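Translate structure to sequence.
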């Protein structure tokens, strides 16, 4: 099986013990800088991801040289432990913000401090919705009344699954204002960090336990779906590009994901925001932007230095992205943003073609 990409991107790493992502570490950055990890006997991709407090697809995206789930003692993995906090257009953080594309849940405490958790979201045909809702009920040791749609898919399931180790909801569940949708734990931790649920949002058992104690009925939940997040730290502008949900499915199966085209709404939205900044005199590092989109490895990179504070509103993730995703594709233009996107596509096509030629020679 061929590697998913034609190269291994070398990132500057510091040796450290991974910890839960809390913060912000400075500005919009949350969590420690990416670290390298040497595989030991007994490790699997799933266990390494859980120990590092990251998801399965996050780990694969940050290690594009992986061609299967097999890892061996002595192998070195990059752990993408740093993230950008998603911003909302009104500047107000509700209790929970979920980014479906990033496979991440962000919880904001009363003091404004944030913590982030890897999650699973809906698989193909069972999409998790985006929008605004709230927590309407908290349940410890929940029973699961199996929806008719899921029983139709698997008739062997009982009508009700009692609390216990065989319950897919795990030990804690948060019911949302959207009927049938929950934020809950799991009895299959290896499923975290990939599109694998029937629409609910799953967390590692230890993470849902922590979150359960920090939230209350009535807390708001905002769900967005953008693979591209802008954020600030120390006056520098960062870009974090994660796989889209479609790309995540391919990556989880160790298949080459389809690249984004220049008319993809998320690319168009990023182009608009960066063009606005460039017009205001901010020097955007084109190469850094192109590289981040091409790699979509989920690791934040600096794309501009010394950005004035009054211009940082351009990093808002809502409602711009939501509106863009519903809009029709726009025609190609000759602006700065369109030029860099076409450059991305050229690089992707050229490298992919060269690598395919090398493999089949």
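Result:
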């Amino acid at each position: 099986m061929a590697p998913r990409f034609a190269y291994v991107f070398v990132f500057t790493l510091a040796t450290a013990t991974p910890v839960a992502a809390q913060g912000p570490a400075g500005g919009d950055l949350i969590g420690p800088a990416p670290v390298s990890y040497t595989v030991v006997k007994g490790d699997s991709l799933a266990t390494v991801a859980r120990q590092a407090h990251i998801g399965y697809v996050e780990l694969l995206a940050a290690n594009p040289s992986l061609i299967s789930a097999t890892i061996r003692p002595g192998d070195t993995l990059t752990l993408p432990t740093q993230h950008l906090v998603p911003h909302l257009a009104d500047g107000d953080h509700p209790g929970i913000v979920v980014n479906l594309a990033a496979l991440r849940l962000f919880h904001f405490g009363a003091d404004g401090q944030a913590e982030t958790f890897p999650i699973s979201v809906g698989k193909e045909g069972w999409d998790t919705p985006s929008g605004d809702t709230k927590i309407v009920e908290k349940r410890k040791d929940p029973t699961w009344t199996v929806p008719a749609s899921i029983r139709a898919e698997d008739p062997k399931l009982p009508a009700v699954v009692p609390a216990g180790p065989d319950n897919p909801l795990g030990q804690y569940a948060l019911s949302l204002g959207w009927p049938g949708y929950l934020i809950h734990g799991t009895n299959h931790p290896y499923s975290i960090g990939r599109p694998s649920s029937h629409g609910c949002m799953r967390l590692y058992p230890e993470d849902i336990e922590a979150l359960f104690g920090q939230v209350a009925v009535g807390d708001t939940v905002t769900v967005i779906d953008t693979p591209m997040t802008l954020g600030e730290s120390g006056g520098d502008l960062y870009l974090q590009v994660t796989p889209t949900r479609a790309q995540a499915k391919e990556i989880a199966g160790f298949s080459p994901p389809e690249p984004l085209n220049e008319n993809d709404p998320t690319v168009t939205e990023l182009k608009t925001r960066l063009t606005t900044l460039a017009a205001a005199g901010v020097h955007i590092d084109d190469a850094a932007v192109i590289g981040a989109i091409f790699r979509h490895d989920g690791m934040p990179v600096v794309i501009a230095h010394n950005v004035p504070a009054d211009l940082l509103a351009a990093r808002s993730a809502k409602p711009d992205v939501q509106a863009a995703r519903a809009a029709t594709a726009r025609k190609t233009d000759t602006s700065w943003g369109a030029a860099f996107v076409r450059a991305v596509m050229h690089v992707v096509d050229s490298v992919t073609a060269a690598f395919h030629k090398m493999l089949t020679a």
